[in-house]
Write a structure and sequence with these properties.
The complex is a heterodimer of chains A (about 210) and B (about 550).
Chain A (H helix, E strand, L loop, with lengths): L1 H22 L5 H11 L9 H14 L13 H11 L24 H12 L9 H15 L12 H14 L2 H7 L10 E5 L11 H6 L1
Chain B lengths: L4 E6 L3 H12 L4 E4 L29 H7 L26 E2 L29 H4 L1 H5 L9 H15 L24 H13 L6 E2 L33 H11 L3 E4 L2 E9 L4 E9 L5 E11 L3 H10 L18 E4 L2 E10 L5 E4 L6 E3 L16 E9 L13 H6 L6 E9 L8 E9 L5 E6 L4 H20 L3 E4 L14 E3 L23 E3 L14 H20 L4
Parallel strand pairs in B: 1-2, 1-8, 2-5, 3-16, 8-19
Antiparallel strand pairs in B: 4-12, 6-7, 7-8, 9-18, 10-14, 10-17, 12-13, 13-14, 15-16
Helix pairs in contact in B: 1-7, 1-11, 5-11
Classes of the chains: A mainly alpha (about 210), B alpha/beta (about 550).
Chain lengths: ~210, ~550
Amino acid sequence: MDHGNRDGRGAGRRQFLMVLAAAGAALTPAALWAQARSGAGAAPPGLMPSQRALLDRVCDLTIPDSDTPGALAAGVPAFVALALAHGLDGAGAPVPATRFTGGAGPDGATVLDWLRFELDLKTGGAFLTAAPAAQVQALAALDGAAYAPGGPPGGDPSPWRVLKGLIVTGYYTSEAGASRELQYELVPGHWDADVPVGPHARAWSSDWTAVDFG
Amino acid sequence: MSAEFDAIVVGSGISGGWAAKELSEKGLKVLMIERGRMIEHGSGYVTETLAPWEMPFRGEGDAALYARDFAVQSKNRHFTEFTQNHFVNDRDNPYSVAEGTEFNWWRGYQVGGRSLTWGRQSYRMSDYDFGANKKDGHGSDWPIRYADLAPWYDHVERFIGVSGQAEGVASLPDGIYQPPMALNVLERYAKGIIEQRWPDRRLTIGRTANLTQEKEGRSACQYRSICARGCSYGAYFSTQSSTLPAARKTGNLTLITDTVVERVDYDAATRRATGVSVLNVKTGERRRHTARIVFLNAGAFNTNHLLLRSRSDAFPTGLGNSSGLLGTHIMDHATTVGAVALFDRFQDRTTFGNRPTGIVIPRFRNLDRQEGDFLRGYSFQGGALRSTWTRAKREAGVGADFKAAMRGPGGWRMVLVSFAESLPRPTNRLTLDPIKTDATGAPLLKIDFSHGENERKALADAGREASAMLSAAGGKVVLSLDRPGAGGSAIHEMGGAMMGDNPRTSVTNRWNQLHDVPNVFVSDGAAMASSACQNPSLTYMALTARACDAAARLLREAKI
């Protein structure tokens, strides 16, 4: 097992260096760590402005406005911040260094530290100031890797799955997400065991059994 | 010396409420003692109508608080931010477990107890169950058979209201039912396939204590399926909706709350219990209450705890423990996910409303002939549903396309959860922890429970059969488990004061009296001699009603 781990870290480090090289000479590991650390250790539940800006942008990209409000408009970042502060779904646990591309993250890194590092890496160093298309591409790449068939490298689920789970939960339990994007009915009043699905059917956010088992 | 009350009932949950109702309706002056707080029907259900976005943590709850104060309770599927007030604080209510074992003891200390949060599945036991101990030699032979309890099942079902379908299945006797809730389109289809391929199996709607017709001031179900928050419609059976109003109506009930019973008081001269010693947890005051009879309905394990704590010179190891068997042969059901399957069929069909029950496939193994390498049997509960937003946590994608893809109903899936009978074993037992105590100085209850090889074999068979049935119905099985969860996971913990005719091999007799102390009745799950594989609460209610009838008769005849 020890050999396996060392090999894994070695491969990760080589990959890390290649990515850095590809990203351009201006980007140094020291600069990235400095950025990552700027958010580490922040006292919950308040997020630092840079963390909040990142979370706002990522929520907006994950579930954007359409004919209904998206995650940002629905106030999801505040829920995610609360959930992170209280460790919902294991989100409070530090992200191990091996989860960072390159295999060597800072001690006690939070999910948002990790996210920022990975997205900055994919956008040449500054995700928040990158062009919208580049942001979308970076997040889609992160998401694709996190949900790749065969599981993520390293075994543990990607921290992105945890964070996306919180964004999704925050959105579909918000009033806009639960009752406008989906349908919400507290008192259905009757049970119909077999009805047709209409062409524009929306799922029920108030189907509690489906929420649990679906 | 004349007693304060005719009867004291310890506990106000499913069986305690029944004891209070039956005894008070027979004209007895009853004191019901609840350790937790009052929750009034309707006004006490503080989260009942709230939406997720009206909750501080959107219904998901405060994970940090749960880790600190609800470490065990929060593992329960019915424990949410909406229902957390109906579960105990684990930090304030500790128990211990034997080294190397695990036990999830899910509890609700409040008026109504777990009747507020129970799963409402209401099944009769059959003679396969009442005869099981005698047949294979595990545990103590039940002193009663189905015919003894059948009229009491009738009595209970008539009062609480159970909706379901009579099926004529020998392993799950029919009762008196309100009209059943309908199977959904996929369940109905699966039923057809399964019953054709396996003629000895039956898929039927879960028999549930949710009303489909109005009943005595209680409304029919509104199909919200948020029962565990409390239902101000009174559409499911709870102490609050049913037995407490009936008991109050007699004028014979006194209910005190926030009061822990610390011991059953015993008079060695008369060989009778004289009442109970209690602690008011709010004021710290200790006092005694006296009565001619005492009913123990504290919840199976707490009833054992109370008896074990009620030590005296006459009963140095616990009241009623001349057999040495008090606390032994405890059971649960061994449960796990038999199979989950995804279905392509019926994508153009869905359901409306939230049905508060699933389906059941009654026991079909080892009935009239022995099959396979395990004793007794198992049954399945589950159902079919279309996924909703929680699938978005599992699926790849971000952005407008992802949002659009998550808008409609998700695919159909069907779940079968296995419940295997737990054999009564002397080594699975409750004792008083020799060292650890709670804040009041009481020794903790120590739980030593493990599932055995028989349960593991039964669940392995159940996993294979669940997969085979869902596959036959056209499903793609994506998960099938065969290892039981930790003890307690079925929330059917029971036993420890098992019924039997022989005082040397059992703790309670055929009328739920302690063999040693005939004016003490144990009629909650503690009295169970075997577990069967169906949900036990209806049996506790029927045993309680029957025991109350016997108690009133024995009092009239001055025999206790």
